[in-house]
Amino acid sequence: MHLIEADARKAVFLREAARQLGLKVTVHNKRIEDLDPLEADVVSARALAPLSTLCAMALPHLSSGGICIFPKGKTYRDELGLAYKDYSFSLETVPSQTDENAVILLLRELCCVTK
To answer: In order of start, what are the domains of the chain with their CATH numbers?
Structure first.
């Protein structure tokens, strides 16, 4: 598992938490745009950016057949409309269990439709 955190203090915390929990993770103290492709089966991000930006960030790191999991708030429909202008994907929405206005977006077959 790869964890990406640009903030050095947060990256130190993630490394220490992983160490104490005995988890095998790699913490990258970088911005996702600065990483070589990871070929990840799952890409997830919470409260990071609008969906279009998340798609742009995730696409280089997603393996063929991979899935994106993005929790989104009440504006998710607007974000979907904007994302569909530049990206194609199959979509499943899962209702949030903590916020009646929020969902978890599951994106499969993500690809860019513009240049």
So the answer is: 1-35 (no CATH), 38-115 (3.40.50.150)
- Which position has the token pair 């938490």? 17
Order of all β-strands in the sheet with 87-95: 40-44, 62-72, 103-112, 87-95
The pTM assigned to this predicted structure is 0.89
Under a CB-based contact definition with an 8 Å cutoff, are residues 39 and 50 in contact? no
Length of the chain: 115
Collapsing DSSP to helix, strand or coil, 12 comes out as: helix
The pLDDT tens digits of the residues spanning 6-65 come to: 999 999 999 999 999 999 999 999 999 999 999 999 999 988 899 999 999 999 999 999
